[in-house]
Amino acid sequence: xxxxxxxxxxxxxxxxxxxxxxxxxxxxxxxxxxxxxxxxxxxxxxxxxxxxxxxxxxxxxxxxxxxxxxxxxxxxxxxxxxxxxxxxxxxxxxxxxxxxxxxxxxxxxxxxxxxxxxxxxxxxxxxxxxxxxxxxxxxxxxxxxxxxxxxxxxxxxxxxxxxxxxxxxxxxxxxxxxxxxxxxxxxxxxxxxxxxxxxxxxxxxxxxxxxxxxxxxxxxxxxxxxxxxxxxxxxxxxxxxxxxxxxxxxxx
Length: 252
Ligand code: MN
Description:
This protein is of the alpha/beta class. It is 25% helix and 26% strand. It contains 7 helices and 13 strands. Strand 1, helix 1 (14-23) and strand 2 form a beta-alpha-beta unit. Helix 1 (14-23) packs parallel to helix 5 (134-150) and helix 2 packs parallel to helix 4 (104-111). The longest helix has 17 residues, at 134-150. The radius of gyration is 19 Å and the shape is globular. The termini are far apart. The relative contact order is 0.14. It binds manganese (II) ion (MN). Residues 8-9, 39, 91-93, 105 line the site of manganese (II) ion.
């Protein structure tokens, strides 16, 4: 059993260290992760330059690239063996609702779908005050991976896991959830560079808009681990027929 571990916070982040340690007694763990924080990288691949891979410790590789680059390299030829699963995280910050579209943590797990095995993205819902219980997130990941080995799930599943930032003993349990969604992001934050030219910071994510029953937001608010099954197909199948009719109006 070989598990590929990646993240988007960089190979030195607390979360990935806790995660690889927690999984080490379940499987042979290889870490392939960005050389620095690439949060928000989504599913981007680096196509305009070569990627350098450095083995910083035995079994720990850092890449001057995105989370998707890392997993892509690792499962398409960096090693002369295959991995059995990809686990991404433990991210410093929630990936709830719309966050999954921007998340490098989730992207690393998504890239692992080419393995044809369930993959897992784990995020800790940290706040400035919550303390950063990365060991909690790592233990949750270990529990889920252990269970997936005992009782396999649909191999095409990507599980997006969010964990309340509390001591492990304080968790209420697990909830299967759907993605909620957020209000639009807060406005950009204008600033000046040292030469007085205008620059802009991307503002924080918006507050939750749909945090109702069954959502990931609600599970976290109530102290549960949220587990959302994701799929790649973004097609809105329900309106395909209606759209085709509308297109007929264009002629041809
Ligand atoms: Mn991150």
